[in-house]
Amino acid sequence: MNESKTQDLGLLFLRGSGALFLLWVHGLPKLLNYSEQLKLIEDPFHLGAHVTLLLAIFAEVLCPLLIIAGVLVRLACLPILAVLLIAMLVVHPEWTLFEGQFGWLLLIIFTSVLIAGPGRLVVSQRFS
């Protein structure tokens, strides 16, 4: 296998595994348990629980699906990175590196995808 194909497979694995992990651990629970999540979600900018939860669902459900498909990948990374930075720096600034390691790891993954792009294994090159 040539280096270009190996890099494309690596980018597919990075974006797919990171997006699936975010979707499964954070996005789907918010979507499937919306009413319960309304009582739990932090609202650091006082937008209201509904708006804050909808923004989180957008970043943690729709954006990972776009990234998995390889559609608007770099653009889809931005809301994810915003939610992660807000969670780590505004909502939970008291967390140690150990307590916040999952969030920091996701920041590393999605920043890497933002920088590198999706690779060539995407639904359409036109929209990636």
Automatic annotation (TrEMBL):
GO CC, any one term: plasma membrane
Keywords linked to the UniProt accession: Cell membrane, Membrane, Transmembrane, Transmembrane helix
Keyword NAD set for record: no
Membrane topology: Multi-pass membrane protein
InterPro entries: DoxX, DoxX-like_oxidoreductase
Record field: transmembrane: 9-27, 47-68, 75-92, 104-123
Location in or out of the cell: Cell membrane
Annotated Pfam families: DoxX (PF07681)
Coiled-coil residue spans: none
Major location (coarse): membrane
Family label: Belongs to the DoxX family.
Protein known as: LysR family transcriptional regulator
Organism: Pseudomonas trivialis
Source taxonomy: Bacteria, Pseudomonadati, Pseudomonadota, Gammaproteobacteria, Pseudomonadales
